[in-house]
Amino acid sequence: MDLVLPDFGLLFWTGLVFCCLLFLLAKFAWKPILSAVNTREQKITEALELAEKTKAEMQSLQAENEKILKEARAERDSILKEAKELSNQMIEDAKSKSKVEAEKIVEAARQSINSEKAAAMAELKNHVAVLSLEIAEKVVRGELTSDDKQKALADKLAGDINLN
Amino acid sequence: MQKANKFRFFVQNLTLLFVFLGAVNFTVLGNEPEEKFNVSEMIMHHIKDAHEWHLFGPEHGGTSIYLPVILLDNGLKTFSSKHFYHGEEVTLIKDSSTHHIMKGTGPATGYALFHEKIYKMKNGKLHMHNGHLTNAKALDFSITKNVLSLLMGAILILLIMLSVARFYKKNGAVAPKGIAKFLEPIIVMVRDDIAKANIDHHKYQKYVPYLLTVFFFIWLNNMLGLVPFLPGGANLTGNISVTLFLAVCTLLVTVFSGNKNYWGHIFWMPGVPVPMKFFMMPIELIGVLTKPFALMIRLFANITAGHIIVLALISIIFINKNVAWGGLSVPMALFISILELLVAFLQAFLFSMLSALFIGAAVEEAHH
Domain spans of chain B? Predict the structure, then answer.
C-alpha cells in the first residue's frame, strides 16, 4: 500500500529540486538555446526569401537581356541588309557609269583613228603626186638630153599628130 | 501506446506464470534449510525508496552507501542511516508473517525503521496492528535513494543543457555541432510538436520552458532508472510522490492559465439546457482533477511496471537456483530493457504532450 502513498519528504525534495531546475534551465539554458534557434530559423527564412527574390530578379534580368539581344540582332540584320543594298546599288551605278565612259572613249578613239586615217591618206596622195611628177620630170629630162632624142620625140609626137 | 500496454500486460502475465511455476517448483523440491527467496519482497524492496544505496553483496551485510537521515521532530535531527541498518534488528512474528524492524542506535535512538519508514518509539516500545506499526511517523526529510537520484539527475540535466546553451552563446546562431546537434531536434520537437501544436500560437511561448523541463526531467530520470548501478537504479519516476508533484505542477499551470472561456465551459456549459448546466458543473470540476490524476498514475504505473518486469525476469534465475535459467531470463530482460528505453521516451513525451493539451484547452479562446 505504501507504494501508492506519497511520501512527504520526497515530495518536498522533488518540489525544491524541480523548481530550482525549472528556474535555472529557463534562465540559463532554454532562453539562450531557444533564442539562438529562433534567430537561426529567422535567418534561414530570410535567406530563403532573398534567394527566391534574387532568382526572380535574375529571371527578369535574363528576360530583359534576351529582349535586348533580340533587338540588337534585328537591328544588325536590318543594317546589314541596308548596307548590302547600298553596296549593290553603288556597284550597279559604277558599272553603268563606267560603261558609258568606256563607250565614250571608244567613240573618241574611233573618231581620231578615222581623222588620222584621212590625214594619212591625203598625205600619201600628195606624196604619190609629187613622186609621179618627179618621175615624169626625170623621164622627160632623160628624153630630152640629146638632140637626136629631142628630134625622135618631136618626130614621134609629130607622127602622133599626123595620124590624127 | 495501447499495443505496448497490451504487450506489457502479456509479458507481465507470462512473467507471473514463470514466477508462480518457479515458486511451486521451489516449494516442492527445495527442502534446503536456507532462507527462502521471496520474489515479491525483493521486487518491492527495489522499486521503493530506501535510506541506503545498496551497491553489491548480500542484502544484509553487503556494501551500501548510508544516506543521511534528516528528521524534523522537536528540532532538526541529522544522522547517518547506518545507525538503523547497523542498529538493533527486531524480528517480529505475527499472524504467521515475519517482520524485520530496525531499531536505531546512537543518534537514532528512539526511532525505528520499518519498511523504510521512520517511526517514533513510544517509551522505547513499538506497537503492531495488522502488520502495520501504529506508532507515529517522524517527519522525514532524509536524503533517501530517490532524493539522491533526483539530485544527480538534476545536475546531469543542468550540465548537459548548460553545455548546449554555451555552444550557442559561443558560436551564435549557427548550425549545431556535438551535443547541441543531438539535443536541438528534441528541443525543437518539444517546442513545435508539443507546445505549438496544442497551445494557441500567440500564447505557447510562455509554456515552452515548463514543458521542456518536464520532458527532459522525466526522460532523463526514466533512463537513469534503467541503469542497474550508480548513478542509476533508483525508481524515481516510478515513485508516486514524484509523479504527484509533476501532475500538481501541470494542474496549477492549467488552473492559473485558465481564461473566461475555460471556466465558462466548466461552471456554465454553453449550448446545453439549464438543468444540464447544473448537472455538468460537478462532472467538469472533477474532470479538472482527473486529468492530472491520470498523468500521475500513468507515469508511476508505466515506470514501476517496467522495473517490476525486469526484476521478475532476473528473479527466475534465483527462484530456480540454476544459472541455466539465465538463458531464458537474460534475453527476455534485455528485450524488456530495450522496450523500456522506448517507454522512457514515450512517457516523457506523453506527460509533456498531455500537459500541453490541458494548458492549450485552458487558454483557448472562444471561437464562434
Answer: 51-142, 146-363
Residues of A with Cβ-Cβ distance to B164 under 8 angstroms: 29, 33
The strand pair at B97-103 and B111-114 is best described as antiparallel
The ranges assigned to domains in chain A are 30-163
To test the contact with chain A by mutation, choose from B47, B151, B213 the residue with the greatest count of A C-beta atoms within 10 A, namely: B213
pLDDT tens readout for residues B248-295: 999 999 999 998 888 888 888 888 888 888 888 999 999 999 999 999
CB proximity under 8 Å: A 102-141 to B: none
Q: What is the pLDDT of residues A43-64, one digit of tens each?
A: 999 999 999 999 999 999 999 9
Number of CB pairs, chain A paired with chain B, less than 8 A apart: 122
CB within 8 Å: A37 and B249: no
- The span from the CA of A92 to the CA of A90, in Å, is 5
Q: Count of CB atoms within 10 A of residue A5's CB? A: 11
- Angle among Cα A146, A149, A153 to the nearest 5 degrees reads 140
Q: What is the ipTM of this complex?
A: 0.86
Confirm or reject contact between A23 and chain B (CB < 8 A). Answer: no
Q: Which residues contact B311 (CB under 8 A, 6 or more apart)?
A: B42, B43, B46, B47
**C-beta atoms of A40 and B174 within 8 A:** yes
Q: The pTM is what?
A: 0.75
